[in-house]
Design brief:
It is a single chain. Among the domains are: 62 residues, MutS, DNA mismatch repair protein, domain I, CATH 3.40.1170; 58 residues, Orthogonal Bundle (DNA polymerase, domain 1), CATH 1.10.150.20; 136 residues, 2-Layer Sandwich (Dna Ligase, domain 1), CATH 3.30.1490. Helices cover 41% and strands 22% of the residues. It has 14 helices and twelve strands. A five-stranded mixed beta sheet has the order 5-6-1-7-8. It has a four-stranded antiparallel beta sheet with strand order 9-12-10-11. A three-stranded mixed beta sheet has the order 3-2-4. It is globular and about 70 Å long. The structure holds 2'-deoxycytidine-5'-triphosphate and magnesium ion. Magnesium ion binds next to strand 1.
Amino acid sequence: MQRVVLHLDMDAFYAAVEVREDPELAGRPLIIGHRGRRGVVATCSYEARAFGVRSAMPSLTAERLCPDAIWLPGRMELYVEVSRRIRRLLDDAAPVVEPLSIDEAFLDLTGHAAGLAEGAALARALKDRIRAQERLTASVGVAPNKFLAKLASDMEKPDGLVVFPIEDVPTRLWPLPVRRLWGVGPKSAEKLERGGIRTVGDIARAPGSALVPLVGPALAAHVHRLAHGEDRRPVERGLEAKSISEERTYVEDLTDRDEIDRALLARARGVARELRRQGLAARTIHIKVRTGDFTTATRALTLPDPTDLADTILDAARALFRERIDLQGRGVRLLGVGVSGILPAESAPAPLFPDAVAERSRRLARAEDAVSDRLGTRALTRARLLRRD
Ligand code: DCP
Ligand code: MG
């Protein structure tokens, strides 16, 4: 049976939601983010993109490129709610939906649509439903697999609908640079380019033996398959129902701010380690706080992207504790950190801020995992977690 995979990604998601809420904003350059030296752009309207403004750009650069833009700080809770409603439309359209981020998902239409043409008709209907119900536009790709469907959805943004049959691989995939291949990061791209391999077509035409010395046998085989438009990854149901958490009850209530902070760090590390052990990443971070008088509070926030890093989980847990918990002088009897909105880590999109700090945390986390696997979880810890006595 011919596989039919659909990838859908909302257009300028946060900005589009804001425009819908305030029609005065329509047609104007709109930036979601905080202005100033420390701010970054979360996203912007296509009108702002015409000035060169992009996601993850420092706000100062964006202000220079587009001085007349309107800035809004963003309302995560609203975007999460819209995302959930769109998710329900997706669930109605296909038996298997794999969410990738707040505004993106794969749908498996195999068996539902006989071929790509029927898949395109379903995609059109889905876009119409999203427009009618949410007054928002989505871009959609329809292809025989995930890799081509995701490429296709990006080709005619905004409001795009692109069908990418395998026959189009030589004309539409081969001219693209090698880093467009899933799994080829900046480092592998550089290694390939040093070997004279610049485009996907160069990979497709190269004999396997030419790629192996550049990137090793595993990546060589992987990119060779992708360059021919082959990708067998199944569309997998999200793991939303799943959650991972860790909590501790204390004999004596914690009252010291620093002690509480260290407890958050220890729990965040445990949760992150478990995520990595299972090859998962999570988008929603929870904390649970029970005070000495047995009142329990839980708070949660959703990140734009899934993570499996203790530092990211800790930042969110700290923010929740600081901004959404009022101890009113009581001590902490129980403290927990948990995650939900779980996805397979490999399906997580490339990091939004592929900066040196995140990359270092990731390398450190892998090294920590390797040591703990061999010597037990107590072998390596953070200096802050060592007892003082
Ligand atoms: N986002 C963010 N920070 C980033 C990138 C994205 O906060 N560096 C948030 C804002 C986006 C949303 O995630 O609206 C979805 O991300 P996309 O990459 O899909 O970007 P958009 O939907 O905004 O635009 P596009 O039309 O290119 O998909
Ligand atoms: Mg989007």
